[in-house]
């Protein structure tokens, strides 16, 4: 079995997130190069971290905490989708 060129790997687009009434409202899109997806989630996670820090310091509102929560939900979905690609038998190193 041959290992796929890492730069050719893309998201599967099978990972849902933001569930409402037991239905996902959003899903990771397929075909995004993994490098680009990981770069984007790094940015999202950075912003989520900053919002969480602000939420910890601001007692009169929870808007920062909720924004951070939703950003983290998006980050987790993309990371889960990337992991599915990397753990795929056709991409596993022999």
Can you tell me about this structure?
The chain is mainly alpha-helical. A two-stranded antiparallel ribbon has the order 1-2. α1 runs antiparallel to α2. It has one domain (6-86). The protein is built from two helices and two strands; from the N terminus they run ββαα.
Gist?
The chain is mainly alpha-helical and 94 residues long. The chain has helices at 34-57, 63-86; strands at 16-20, 23-27. The chain has one domain (6-86).
Topology:
Layout: E1 16-20, E2 23-27, H1 34-57, H2 63-86
Antiparallel strand pairs: 1-2
Protein name: DUF3077 domain-containing protein
Organism: Pseudomonas antarctica
Pfam families: DUF3077 (PF11275)
Question: Features of this protein?
Answer:
94 residues, mainly alpha, two-stranded antiparallel ribbon, DUF3077 domain-containing protein
Shape: elongated
Query: What structural category characterises the helix and strand content?
Result: mainly alpha
Major beta-sheet overview = 2 strands, antiparallel
Mean pLDDT: 88
Give the count of structural domains. Answer: 1
Number of strands: 2
Q: Output the strand order for the largest sheet.
A: 1-2
Query: Per DSSP, what share of the residues sits in E-state strands of 2 or more residues?
Result: 5-15%
- The number of distinct helices, counting runs of at least 4 residues, comes to 2
Q: Using the CA coordinates, give the radius of gyration.
A: 16 Å
Order of helices and strands: EEHH
Helicity, as a percent range: 40-55%
Q: Kindly, what is the distance between the CA atoms of the first and last residues, rounded to a whole number of angstroms?
A: 8 Å
Which residues form runs of ≥5 with pLDDT under 50?
Answer: none
């Amino acid at each position: 079995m041959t290992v796929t060129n890492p730069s050719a790997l893309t998201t599967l687009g099978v990972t849902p997130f933001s569930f409402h009434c037991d239905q996902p409202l959003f899903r990771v899109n397929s075909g995004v190069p993994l490098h680009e997806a990981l770069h984007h989630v790094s940015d999202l996670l950075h912003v989520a971290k900053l919002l969480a820090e602000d939420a910890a310091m601001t007692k009169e509102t929870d808007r920062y905490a909720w924004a951070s929560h939703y950003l983290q939900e998006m980050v987790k979905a993309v990371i889960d989708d990337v992991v599915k690609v990397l753990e795929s038998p056709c991409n596993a190193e022999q």
